[in-house]
Amino acid sequence: MTYAVHGTGRDRATxxxxxxxxxxxxxxxxxxxxxxxxxxxxxWAIALMTVIWAAAVLAMTVGGVRAARHRAxxxxxxxxxxxxxHAAAGSxxxxxxxxxxxxxxxxxxxxxxxxxxxxxxxxxxxxxxxIPVSSRPLRLVVRSRxxxxxxxxxxxxxxxxCTECQ
Length: 166
Known about the structure:
By secondary structure, this protein is α+β, with helices and mostly antiparallel strands. The chain is 38% helix and 25% strand. The chain has helices at residues 40-88, 93-106, and strands at residues 2-5, 23-26, 29-34, 110-117, 120-129, 138-146.
């Protein structure tokens, strides 16, 4: 806190002036307290609110992207199962991929690729979301494979296993 000296404080008109009006006595002189840090608490509060707001927006964005990713995985898995079941039943590739497209659309995605190799269906589903921190939409592309297990069907080799999924 800084002080500004003003007069001697011996005037009758100002003899009763005290801390209530911003003036105080120090060593027989009237001294007025000058507050240079006035309003800094408001700036700190605004800065803290800004940090909290930014953290909340970031948390909601991350949660929304994770939810969309899970929705895309579910849509791709369901679409692959639908295509594989129609292929195993003897339907044509067009009908199997058409059903996979309906399932993907019903799950909030769009079928972007559908390939049938015998009873095995490989599909790719795209989900587009908007996030608040970017003006461009975010595209999530998820691939899934379904079909009978074992020889001639879907095999799980160590090379094709997803190591980043879990």
